Amino acid sequence: NAGVMQNPRHLVRRRGQEARLRCSPMKGHSHVYWYRQLPEEGLKFMVYLQKENIIDESGMPKERFSAEFPKEGPSILRIQQVVRGDSAAYFCASSDISTYNEQFFGPGTRLTVL
Amino acid sequence: DAKTTQPPSMDCAEGRAANLPCNHSTISGNEYVYWYRQIHSQGPQYIIHGLKNNETNEMASLIITEDRKSSTLILPHATLRDTAVYYCIVKTNAGKSTFGDGTTLTVKP
Lengths: 114, 109
Fold this sequence. Notes:
The complex is a heterodimer of chains A (114) and B (109). Chain A is built from no helices and 11 strands. With 114 residues, chain A is an all-beta fold. Chain B has strands spanning 9-13, 18-23, 32-38, 45-50, 55-56, 61-64, 70-75, 84-91, 103-108. Classes of the chains: A mainly beta (114), B mainly beta (109). The A-B interface holds A 4, 33, 35, 42-45, 48, 55-56, 58-59, 89, 91, 93, 97, 100-108, 110 and B 32, 34, 38, 41-46, 49, 87, 93-102.
């Protein structure tokens, strides 16, 4: 049973470009969470999605960031017009509500903005 | 979600038990205590969770005080590979996890 998969593992963008991060949840999981970890800091919640719905986006920056989890395919975290401050590790987690919502994390995508 | 307080760092000798404390004095009745760890820069790994009873699995034991205002994660025989940042999280069953600064556990030979 494959775990949570994220790609790419490393992403380099220049300022002003767009970054698209993908997350494939564990098989059978319908809940996806995105977290951001700045260098030397803890994880910060960004957004919680179920299939085709955003449940909680209280941690998402108001501009340039968006997330989706379509009926088919992976969840996408999109960052438009990236700035150097967006450089961080972005982790995705998935859960199945029947397992008391323990969240299984992917290996992360490390975004570097030049 | 309730706030948690953990010591910033702890050391433990290899082979000995590691006892990691967590204070969560504002925990609500429907909130669980979860523990995760993050080894180096990998994705966090779920360890254990509980509501009010003590819990044990193949990785660790979780001891929750009767008033539920604090808990202790116990790694019974720490190894060098247990060196990591350990996060105590208090949350309801569904929804986001709020990670604090955690405890950096260093297991020494």
